[in-house]
Write a structure and sequence with these properties.
By secondary structure, this protein is mainly alpha-helical. The chain has helices at 10-45, 49-52, 54-73, 79-98, 103-125, 128-131, 137-166, 168-189, 215-234, 237-243, 249-274, 278-299, 304-315, 317-328, 331-359, 364-386.
Length: 391
């Protein structure tokens, strides 16, 4: 089961795909952890909530750079070795974060997390074709990328749940131990994966890969609008719940768990629809996000219903954008560009939300997220009408 050999038993191929999916779940869960732990991290390390939000910004920016850089610099290396190295780095980063005595040490650990995120996600997204026969590539890719989507909506509630019993540091310890377990599992299930025969690059004649025009650029722009809008608000959701909704720890945990459950449902519901029409699916999801964030900002009441709607909306964003980018791009370069755009958007959204939370109010971040979600829906709608062939 190498680059051209997929004759290994079906069970072995499925285990390899499942292992990589668990790997994407673990890296994205690690990235999202500070969202549910922000108040505790800020208090323990003696910084403001906005400053603590840089623990989301830093890995996002680093991952955006790491994705294309690693795609080029490791092009002659066995992809199995690269994935194992990145998972080992993630384990170290989470354990360092768990024991960080000061904020600078914590931030340094999050930089290491960003390197692992960018490289692992970029390689894992296209590895399905190396593990299964051609007829099963679509399903394998969906399972692997599903780890990203599920982690985006379940990672925070799970981390918050653990921290409510044993503190925020225990959450990073648990994720570090999970990364070690995944390292062993990947080593046991992944076959040798020779590097691609040709360097990672897009054909010059393929205008879909233009950085300045074409459908690919539009999808990347929509990624930036939707994801940055979400994280401008979501990064500061816990402070909002505590300060505006006056929610205690039990209600915060319950609200985030409901959000996560709704997000998983949204992920699979949107995936089925996005395979046929990703543009209209994204418009629907962005509208759901905007309505839920606006409702929170307007009422400040116990937010369970609004968070369920928000979860349904954002839960489908990742898989919808992934399917859309696969339609408009291709290969490791297209994936690396998408991973870069996604992670830059996480970083910018978290950073902007922090400045708004510290400079205006924690309620104002909900309006920022609402505005960007509305703009995303509008751009997708206008571009669809102006395009001669529908998406």
């Amino acid at each position: 089961m190498t680059q051209t050999d997929v004759s290994a038993p079906v069970r072995a191929r499925r285990l390899a795909v499942a292992s990589v999916a668990l790997g994407t779940f673990t890296i994205v869960t690690s990235e999202m952890l500070p969202v549910g732990l922000l108040t505790s991290i800020a208090s323990d390390l003696g910084v403001s909530a906005g400053t603590a939000g840089l623990t989301m910004t830093a890995p996002g920016l680093v991952a955006a750079i790491a994705a294309p850089v690693l795609a080029v610099t490791t092009r002659r290396l066995d992809r199995r070795h690269v994935l194992l190295g990145l998972m080992a780095l993630l384990a170290v980063a989470n354990l360092v974060a768990a024991s960080a005595p000061t904020y600078p040490v914590m931030l340094a650990a999050r930089v290491l997390t960003g390197v692992s995120i960018g490289g692992f996600w970029a390689f894992a997204a296209g590895i399905g074709a190396r593990l299964v026969p051609e007829r099963a590539v679509g399903r394998a890719t969906s399972i692997i990328l599903g780890g990203v989507s599920v982690a985006s909506v379940l990672g925070v509630p799970a981390g918050t749940f653990v921290s409510s019993f044993a503190g925020w540091r225990s959450t990073f310890v648990a994720t570090g131990v999970l990364a070690v377990a995944l390292l062993v599992l990947l080593a046991a299930t992944l076959p040798p994966l020779r590097p691609p025969a040709a360097p990672v690059a897009a054909p010059a004649r393929d205008k879909r890969f233009s950085w300045l025009s074409g459908p690919l650029t539009v999808v990347l722009a929509l990624t930036a609008l939707t994801v940055s809008g979400h994280f401008a608000a979501y990064t500061y959701l816990r402070p909002f719940l505590e300060e505006v909704s006056l929610a205690g720890p039990a209600l915060v945990s319950t609200a985030l768990l409901l959000y996560g459950a709704a997000g998983v449902a949204g992920n699979f519901a949107a995936g089925a629809r996005a395979a046929r029409n990703p543009r209209s699916t994204l418009i629907t999801l962005a509208v759901l996000m905007a309505l839920s964030m606006a409702a929170l900002a307007l009422t400040g009441l116990p937010p369970l219903v609004a968070l369920v709607v928000w979860g349904l909306g954002y839960g489908g964003v990742g898989v919808t954008l992934q399917l859309w980018i696969m339609r408009e791009g291709g290969g490791e370069l297209g994936t690396a560009l998408f991973v870069s755009a996604f992670n830059v958007s996480i970083a910018l959204g978290a950073f902007a939300g922090g400045r708004i939370a510290d400079g205006v109010s924690v309620s104002a971040v909900m309006w920022a997220g609402t505005g960007l979600a509305v703009v995303s829906a509008a751009v997708a709608g206008i571009w669809g009408r102006n395009r001669t062939t529908g998406s």
